[in-house]
Write a structure and sequence with these properties.
Blueprint lengths: L1 H37 L2 H8 L3 H7 L3 H26 L4 H17 L2 H13 L4 H28 L7 H4 L2 H16 L8 H16 L3
Helix pairs in contact: 1-2, 1-4, 1-6, 4-5, 4-7, 5-7, 5-10
Length: 211
């Protein structure tokens, strides 16, 4: 009898630990289908098989849930790119190649992330606070990491100060074009993503590295 009680307790404990992830997964499906404005916490709760009150145990409101969902999609990838920076001992050119290769494989080609971008573009004018949260929690850390990589190259004499180092946003701008292209033209005019990646990387390396 004691073993049965302990097993049931462990099952409940495990289910409770899994619940936030289940809510985030349900949130992604509902936001993707209905958009941010038309999605309600009641819909998400129903899909996740929990009560609306349960959502509030883990998330403050719909905006917090949305940003938490985006953060969950990006966290592992951003952590890996950060780890590459911390551990890399070779040239900055090799670091950039490794980082951009990983970003294209795990971010650019991720359809779920692209769906989030589509939602943000559609909803940003009506919910500027949502776009601002995305900028602060996702976009800004990405840019800070890129700036650190550039600073590393400059400190090592591998990168010279230029208009590009002063405005590193242009380095990742081609990724935004990939998103827009795939949203608008992918079925009729598919992009050769492999060729595009190599062209983008060539542009980054030649635009940054000291000649």
């Amino acid at each position: 009898m004691t073993d049965l009680i302990e097993a049931r307790t462990e099952t409940r404990r495990r289910r409770k630990a899994e619940r936030p992830q289940e809510i985030l997964e349900a949130a992604f499906h509902q936001f993707s289908r209905n958009g941010y404005a038309m999605t309600t916490l009641d819909q998400i709760a129903e899909r996740a098989g929990v009560t609306k009150g349960t959502i509030y145990v883990y998330f403050e409101n719909k905006e917090h849930l949305f940003i938490s969902m985006v953060r969950e999609l990006m966290k592992a990838t951003l952590d890996t790119v950060q780890d590459m920076f911390e551990r890399h001992e070779g040239s900055t050119a090799d670091l950039l190649r490794a980082q951009f290769s990983f970003i294209y494989e795990h971010i650019v080609e991720d359809r779920r992330r692209r769906e989030v971008v589509r939602m943000l573009i559609a909803e940003a004018s009506r919910f500027p606070a949502l776009a601002d949260r995305y900028h602060e929690e996702i976009h800004r850390p990405c840019m800070e990491l890129l700036k650190r990589t550039i600073r590393r190259g400059m400190d090592r004499g591998e990168i010279s100060q230029s208009a590009v180092t002063e405005c590193p946003l242009v380095i990742i701008a081609p990724i935004a074009l990939v998103d827009l292209w795939m949203m608008m033209f992918d079925e009729r005019h598919p992009l050769d993503l492999k060729a595009y990646f190599h062209a983008h990387l060539d542009l980054v390396i030649n635009g940054l590295l000291t000649k």
